[in-house]
Structures are given as C-alpha cells and as structure tokens.
C-alpha cells in the first residue's frame, strides 16, 4: 500500500450502471482527478454498460457536460475531459440480457487491440444490489473473469452487501463460486475519505498515541454519523432498510474497526484486513435482553431544518404512514479483548439531525485528583481527541488551560489540525484512491468477505430482537439532536454525547 506505482498499468474500466447517480457524480469526476494527477496510463479506456437509451456519441456528450459541471465550468480542464471522453464507449443492454455480455466481450477485444489495454479489466458494479450476482455470473459465463497469461480481472461491488448475516453469507458464497475472493473488491466509500485513513496514520505513525490507546487511559469512545437530510427520494428503499442496516454494518463498524484494531505487522492488505477481522470478532453480539438496554431506535417527526419546516418521516414520499422504520440508532458496544475490555464504544447515526457531521471522539479518563475543582468555570472536563471525518477533516485535542490573570481559572481549550488549512484544498470525490487501488490491485481499503460477515454478526441479533419487539421505537423532532433515550443511554454510564454543534 505504501509503495504504489507512479500510475496504473494498462486496463479497461467497465462501469455497470453508467447512466446512474454514482457514475455521474462520483466515478467520472474521480477519473478526471486521477488523470490530472497523472495516475492513469495512456493504455486506458472506459466502457459504460446500461440500458439508458442513448447512442455512444450522446453518452460522450452527456459525460462531457457532466464533467464540465462537476469541475466548475470556468476552471474545467478541457484536455482532461476530452482525454476521458475520447476513451469512453458504450454497451447498451439490460443487466439481465446474456447478449449484452457477448457484446461487451467483443467490445473489450476491440479496445485491447486499439489501445493495448492488455486484457486487464476492472468491472465496477454501480448497480442496485439485486444485480450484483447476475452481472458477475454473466461475466463468468462469457469468460471475462478468467485471468490467464498475467491478465487481471477484478470486480468492484458497491454497498449494500447483503441485508442481514445470512444474505451476506449467501452473496459471498455465490460470488466466490464465479470469481476468486482476490478478484472481489467490496467497497465502503468511507475508506476513501482522507481522515478515515488518517486514523491509521495518527495511531501508527506517531509514538505518543499508541501507548495510551487502551483501557488504562481511554474512558470511552463515541462514533457519530449525523445527517441533516431526510430520506429525500429514497423513501421506498429506506423504509425497508432503516438506519441500522443502512449505516452501521458498513460505515460505523468500519470506523470502529480502524479505531480499535491492533497495529498490523505491515501496511499490506492481508495484515490490515486481518486485524480488522479480529477486532470485529471481539465485539460480543448483543443478546435479546441487552438489545433493550444497549440500543435505541427512533424516527423523526415533523420539525425544522435550517429554519424551514420539514415533514415527519411518516409523511415522506413512499413511506408507509404507520412505518416503524428507524431513522436514528444509538448503541453501546464492547470490544472484549485485552486492550479494550470495559471501554464502551457508543455509536449513533441519524437523519434530520441539526448538523451534518461524522466524527470519532476518544474520551480519556479524567485526572485522578480534582485539584482545580474551584478554579474552573465549568466542572473540569476529560481530555478528548476528536477526529472529524466530514464535512470538516480535522483532528483536535481538547485539554484544560489556565486563563491568564492573577486568579487560577481553568478552561477547556483545543489544539487543532485541519487538513484543508495545512495541506490546502483539493476537490476530491473520495473515490480517487479507491479506483486507483482497484486498478493497481491493492485491496487494503476494500472489505474481505469475512469482514462483512463479522459486521453483520454484530448487527443481526439486534435486527432480530427489534423484530420481536425489544426496545421501544422513540421519536424526535426533525432538526433536534435525537431522542431523549439516546442521551439516557450515556447518562446511565455517567457520560454525555459530544454536542452536535
Ligand atoms: N449514488 C451514490 O451517491 C452512491 C453512493 C454510495 C453507494 N452507492 C451504491 O451504488 C449503486 C448505484 O447507485 P446509484 O445511485 O448510481 O443508482 P442509480 O442512480 O439508480 O443508477 C443505477 C443505474 O443502473 C441502471 N439500471 C437499473 N436497472 C438496470 C437494468 N436492469 N439493466 C441495465 N441498467 C439498469 C439505471 O438505469 P435507468 O436510469 O434506466 O434506471 C441507472 O443508470 C447502488 O448499489 C448504491 O447503493 C451509490
């Protein structure tokens, strides 16, 4: 991972669902950025696959416009856009139609001849999950997954990967019948975010944090993914999914794994993923009784967002008027290993909260003696290391300092590193590293099948307990910081969520 080639080798990127939101908003802009950084090889091409009713020339024109918009009309790099668009071709077909895959195989042979792409293919499934297996099976049937004579063939699978433990296991079994595990790149786009990776650098490239990164010094950990948006146009999908399935097995547990894992012996895919699998296996699944005590599920009602009234979840389009789907979840997990036993990990995520923010808070144990009890304008606070992942990418350390003056007055202050201030602003989608890594065959930032299954093993008992009625469904007004029960979850342990501000 740390000794990457200067640019990717020859190859073709095939995007299934080329007309969709992910391809337009994130994948093509990421290619544009990769080109600008000099990371794409001359022997490179993109094939779009989808049922969109356009000609190849029309698709190129759409992408040209889309890239111009995405890169800011005025500052758009026309040469970069033309470079990508001139390499784009299109196979128009339904995902379920075998003839489309024959056409694709013929197109790829042509491109290999014309552009010397060497028979190396990266198949990106920017499709709804019900097509993952269909597409991969068809690719196998036309021989596009065979890796002979040093050629590589890889498949990038988007989230969601299953909707519970059994479906994830089944999908893993089915996919590995057609492709080798090493060919499957399961994506969690959180791993493309700079500050998520910075958790690893912070922990393992510095000498000062690791000695105190354990139960002796850390009181508890909070992981928050707060969104201001409601379900928007995704009501139909979301009402069958809910906050727990949508966010926890992937993003929140991914962040937990990076925060809690043991140091890997090398910065390699095998070592990094091996440690994450181990730490997820150390999270004891909640029993049916614990689910009532350690989880909170809630749904937003009507309220205010950014000063405007917004409807409640049950009034959203394509949501059942008596829906019991949670739009908010908070939970308390443990990591039962030598390093973490006794340290609670609190997770929360929700829609229609007052701000958009993803952060990890490491709260250290308080000083052993409250020497300055009378000198503080508020009660002395614990030291906190706050890793902000989005929208701001920053790390800050909160501690107590003396207010200048003759009196000894103590106040909390912070030392703060902000990625943007220090390294400058780069307009990135978060998919650049992931696409590049998939092209060069570095799977470090992609999930292995057992990581996915371990995550679902943590979530599955909660889903089952909730389905059997454990834990009430709570409500919170849109624009507020979640249900009272989520505050109570921490208050019972003498803790408090870091304010959503
Ligand atoms: N969008 C995001 O920001 C985002 C972020 C992270 C992960 N993801 C994941 O990425 C995947 C794609 O998401 P998306 O937002 O791009 O979805 P989308 O906008 O619905 O795009 C899906 C594309 O697939 C095409 N399609 C659907 N059924 C087809 C069929 N039977 N045959 C051929 N083409 C078909 C659609 O064509 P039509 O337009 O003709 O329907 C559309 O172009 C999903 O798994 C999603 O969870 C998306």
Tell me what you see in this structure.
By secondary structure, the protein is α/β, with parallel strands linked by helices. It folds into two domains: 11-158, 3-Layer(aba) Sandwich (Rossmann fold); 191-491, Dihydrodipicolinate Reductase, domain 2 (2-Layer Sandwich). 35% of the residues lie in helices and 21% in strands. The chain is built from 15 helices and 17 strands. It has helices at 21-36, 56-70, 78-85, 98-115, 132-141, 165-178, 194-204, 235-238, 242-260, 269-281, 288-294, 419-423, 432-440, 449-467, 484-491; strands spanning 11-16, 44-50, 88-92, 121-125, 153-157, 184-186, 218-226, 295-301, 303-305, 308-310, 328-333, 345-350, 357-364, 384-390, 394-403, 409-418, 473-477. The strands form three sheets. Strands 16-15-14-13-7-12-11-8-17 form a nine-stranded mixed sheet, with helices on both faces. It has a six-stranded parallel sheet with strand order 3-2-1-4-5-6, with helices on both faces. Helix 1 (21-36) packs across helix 2 (56-70). It is globular and about 80 Å long. The mean pLDDT is 94. NADP nicotinamide-adenine-dinucleotide phosphate is lined by residues 17, 19-22, 50-52, 94-96, 126-129, 158-159, 189. NADP nicotinamide-adenine-dinucleotide phosphate (NAP) binds at residues 17, 19-22, 50-52, 94-96, 126-129, 158-159, 189.
Oligomer: single chain
* Mean pLDDT metric: 94
User: Would you identify the regions where 5 or more consecutive residues have pLDDT less than 50?
Assistant: none
Radius of gyration: 24 Å
- List the strand order in the largest sheet: 16-15-14-13-7-12-11-8-17
How many individual helices? 15
CATH superfamily of the largest domain: Dihydrodipicolinate Reductase, domain 2
Structural class: alpha/beta
Shape: globular
Instruction: Using the coordinates above, name the CATH class of the largest domain.
Output: Alpha Beta
